[in-house]
Structures are given as structure tokens and as C-alpha cells.
Design brief:
Strand content: 25-35%
CATH class of the largest domain: Mainly Beta
Bound molecules: GDP-perosamine
Shape: globular
Radius of gyration: 18 Å
Strand order of the largest sheet: 7-10-13-16-19-22-24-25
Number of strands: 25
Order of helices and strands: EHEEEHEHEEEEEEEEEEEEEEEEEEEEHH
Structural class: alpha/beta
Number of helices: 5
Oligomer: single chain
CATH architecture of the largest domain: 3 Solenoid
CATH superfamily of the largest domain: Hexapeptide repeat proteins
Number of domains: 2
């Protein structure tokens, strides 16, 4: 097994891992892995053939997801989903389940500058990026992204595969359903529920519960359909 950029200070027994996806999100993840010394990034797999044979921050892009069994044979036992994506967390869920079905174990990654309360419960495969906060009593599912400087206040419950984007704030005791997306810089008032698969637009101020599957924008946040008449292009431009 070829170690990739092992740091001089890194203990020799840290595991190696594969990163699924090789774009911007994956590069932040590689930095986090190296800074946290949770695991050594061994290889990237990416759906984009033009990246195959190249490197992402010095980590080789070996090919597509079909290579997972080969990596297992090479002794790789761990993975992290490196696809970020905006608004739709289904591709991240599918990748996560695929790698687990192959027998790989998802890694939990917290950047050293993030504050994760010892009483918080953080699921496998969840990543907490630089300067994020996960406060006391919070419970995060698997494969969640707590992006740079996002804040998960005390006693929030965040479902599997949720993305809390850069700088978003969940005030205390917010419940977020699986696969939901909380856009960059959005604020969700305390004690609210964001339903499964709901989307909160960038910069929104959420002051009421958001039902499952509904997209909201604005200050105060309102359902996209009532603001935009369901215009899909505008919806996408505002997700962040
Ligand atoms: O099924 C897949 C797959 N689908 C897309 N398997 C694998 N292994 N890789 C996949 N990809 C790859 O993920 C694409 O081919 C592409 O190389 C990469 C996504 O890169 P991109 O830079 O487009 O997006 P990102 O997900 O890394 O970052 C987005 O989300 C972040 C949270 C951006 O919007 C960032 O700005 C944002 N910070």
C-alpha cells in the first residue's frame, strides 16, 4: 500500500482511506484529513474520466467507483464521501450506501479548529469542517456535512446525509430530517423542524417549521412556490 503524503508527525498506525469525489469539497476534506490525522488519503475515485490518472492535492485519482473492490483488495478499509453538491443530497447518499455495501467503513472527520462537544453524538462518515461548532447534546446522523463555520447549537438533531452549508446556523433544539439541505448563511430559529429532504435557500431566516420536501427562501423564509411561482432556474441560482 503506497502511503500518500504521510506527515512527519502522523502516527504510523493511522488508517488509509479512499475519497469518493475529487472536486472542491474533496480538496477541503483532504486538508481536514491531513490536519486531523484521522486517516491518510490513499486514493480518490471520481466519475469524471478526465480526472483519472491525475492527482488531487497529491492524492492519485485512480478511476471510477467500480474500483472499490480493487482498493479493498489493496487493504483499504475506510472511505469518506467527497462529493458536496448543493441542494440534492441523494447522490451523496447513494455513494455512501454503495461504499458500505462493498464492505468499507465510513470515517468521521473533524477539523482540529472545529469545536465538537464531547457530549455531542456524531455519526460515521460525518465531516465537520474548519471553525464549525457542534454544541453539547447535538446528535448528527451519518454522512452529514457540517461545512466551514456552520453552527449546530445544543440539542439539535440532524438526520443522515444532511448538508449544513458554509456559515449556516441551527439555533438550539432544531430537528433536521434526513437528506435536507440548509443553505449557506441561513439561520434556523430554535425548536423548529426542517422536514426530510427540505431545502433552505442561502441566507434564509427560517422562523416556522418547513415541511418535508419543501424549498424555502428569504427573510423570513417562505416556500419557493409562493415566491417564485415554481421557477426552477431561480430556485437553483439561490441555493448556495
Ligand atoms: O457518483 C459519483 C460522483 N458524482 C459526481 N462518484 C464519484 N466517485 N464522484 C462523483 N462525482 C464527482 O464529484 C464529479 O465528477 C466531480 O469531480 C466531483 C464534484 O466536484 P465539484 O467541484 O463540482 O463539486 P463538489 O461537490 O466538490 O463541491 C460543491 O459542494 C461544496 C459543498 C461545490 O458547490 C462547492 O462550492 C461546495 N463548497
Amino acid at each position: 500500500m503506497r502511503p500518500t503524503h504521510r506527515q512527519a508527525s502522523m502516527p504510523v498506525d493511522v488508517p488509509t482511506c479512499v475519497i469518493l469525489g475529487g472536486g472542491g469539497h474533496a480538496r477541503v476534506l483532504i486538508d481536514c484529513l491531513r490536519a486531523s490525522e484521522v486517516a491518510l488519503p490513499y486514493a480518490v475515485l471520481d466519475a469524471d474520466r478526465s480526472l483519472w490518472g491525475r492527482e488531487v492535492l497529491g492524492v492519485p485519482v485512480r478511476g471510477g467507483d467500480g474500483l472499490l473492490p480493487d482498493l479493498l483488495r489493496e487493504g483499504i478499509r475506510h472511505f469518506v464521501v467527497g462529493v458536496g453538491g448543493i441542494g440534492d443530497n441523494e447522490p451523496r447518499r447513494r455513494l455512501f450506501e454503495r461504499a458500505r455495501r462493498q464492505g468499507l467503513t465510513p470515517l468521521r472527520v473533524c477539523h482540529p479548529s472545529a469545536m465538537c462537544s464531547p457530549s455531542a453524538v456524531i455519526g460515521q462518515g460525518t465531516v465537520v469542517f474548519p471553525h464549525a461548532v457542534v454544541n453539547t447534546g447535538a446528535r448528527l446522523g451519518v454522512n452529514v456535512i457540517v461545512n466551514t463555520s456552520a453552527v449546530i447549537e445544543h440539542d439539535c438533531v440532524v438526520g443522515d446525509h444532511v448538508h449544513v452549508a458554509t456559515g449556516a446556523v441551527l439555533c438550539s433544539t432544531v430537528h433536521v430530517g434526513v437528506l435536507a439541505h440548509i443553505g449557506a448563511g441561513a439561520v434556523v430559529r430554535q425548536c423548529l423542524t426542517i422536514g426530510e429532504g427540505a431545502v433552505v435557500g442561502a441566507g434564509a431566516a427560517v422562523v416556522r417549521d418547513v415541511p418535508a420536501g419543501v424549498t424555502v427562501f428569504g427573510v423570513p423564509a417562505e416556500p419557493a412556490d409562493s415566491i417564485l411561482g415554481g421557477v426552477e432556474d431561480l430556485r437553483r441560482e439561490n441555493l448556495g
